[in-house]
Design a protein that fits this description.
Arc Repressor Mutant, subunit A, transcription regulation (chains A, B), Homeodomain-like_sf (chains A, B), homodimer, Tetracycline Repressor, domain 2, DNA-binding (chains A, B), DNA-binding, DNA binding (chains A, B), 2 domains, 197 residues, mainly alpha
DNA sequence: AGAATCCTGGACCGCCGGGTCCAGTCGGAG
DNA sequence: CTCCGACTGGACCCGGCGGTCCAGGATTCT
């Protein structure tokens, strides 16, 4: 990405990312630069003007965009997991999001395009998971501090388990089209955090 | 695949599948027919002789092979989940398998190569999940019948939740390289099936 | 033996797609 | 107004890869 960048240039750059994201969300599989070029009404030279390292850099930018979107979709609940009410609201938001998304996970498709051992691609995923887990752990810790969740399970572990439920549920949703595993697993895991009578 | 197929032909076909599987397991990402040809010491014409529909058919065969392998790796425990001892043995086998596998899931790489909405690819995954879930559910049911697991959770649901733990844990292992989420989630889910005192 | 069929080698083709280049146009700073 | 750097269009290149083809070797059956 060039150092000088006028507002017009920034707008074009964003249009490319957003357009590519939309394209991959619907088309699902591998997208060529020509398709992106056509969908965003740009030219080859613009693509390489804004992403000099080519395809990989572009896809990485789109992946980061999608990763941010995933967290943003869970707001405002994800940042305010301070009561069972908000936990349930969060749970419903997540389920609704994946139900809506159906069998097309934009991020997984994206990462499938990039080399799995590529450092950049790995970073995007790891960053997402870390941010996600941190927010969940904060929520669990707050609940434990107020005796609303059991202290028998370490907050970080609980957050890990919740993440596994969401990711695993989403993965199975992608394969089978069924949301019930996601719901079941998430509900069971949450259940386990309830204070035992 | 041709109708006539001598034992020599079948051997070559198997060699191609096995060789391609090994190749994808180590190389990780997209594999070209030329690489497969070289690794299996065959020629282009053989590849298309045994897989007339070309690359897709070949990858699909490899994917089926890998899916079967996943279940086979969990034997004999998966077919004998009749005591807590065997459940734990199964749990350890699964964890060990994914720990060994590390960040390279052959099946996910494979399916990433094929069009995600391809009917054949979908079938491979769905079949695997269904067989897997059926075996887990059978185990849970057996345990419930002998009052070794709680009857409070429907056997199919329990199997779904276990699957989510394994798949989600494996997915996170692939991304982050950490096995602990897999272990945590699996253990928590199993815990929940214990009969409450 | 001989024919029918399966199996194998490898040259060849065509296209798709990432990447390059250059000749412009635009837009704002001085 | 003028100039410079950012921005844009699109023709072009070229390597790789999936796929085709045919000629010839190996097998098996009658």
């Amino acid at each position: 990405m060039p150092q000088g960048l006028t507002s017009k240039g920034a707008a074009t750059r964003d249009r490319i990312i957003e357009g590519a994201a939309v394209l991959m969300r619907q088309s699902g599989a591998g997208v060529s630069l020509d398709e992106i070029r056509e969908a965003t009404r740009t030219s080859k030279s613009q693509l390489f003007h804004y992403f000099p390292q080519g395809r990989e850099q572009l896809l990485l930018a789109v992946a980061r965009h999608e990763a941010d979107q995933i967290l943003a979709d869970q707001q405002p609940h994800l940042d305010d997991l301070t009561s069972w009410r908000s936990w349930h609201a969060w749970r419903n938001t997540v389920v609704a999001r994946y139900r809506r998304q159906g069998r097309h996970c934009p991020l997984s498709v994206l990462l499938g395009q990039l080399a799995p051992d590529d450092e950049g691609a790995r970073t995007v995923t790891v960053d997402l998971l870390e941010r996600w887990q941190a927010k969940l752990a904060a929520g669990v810790r707050h609940m434990q501090d107020h005796d609303l969740m059991t202290r028998g399970i370490d907050a970080e572990r609980a957050a890990e388990a919740l993440l596994v439920s969401v990711e695993g549920g989403a993965l199975i949703l992608i394969s089978t089209g069924s949301v019930s595993p996601l719901e079941t697993s998430l509900d069971l895991t949450l259940d386990q955090l309830r204070v035992r009578p």
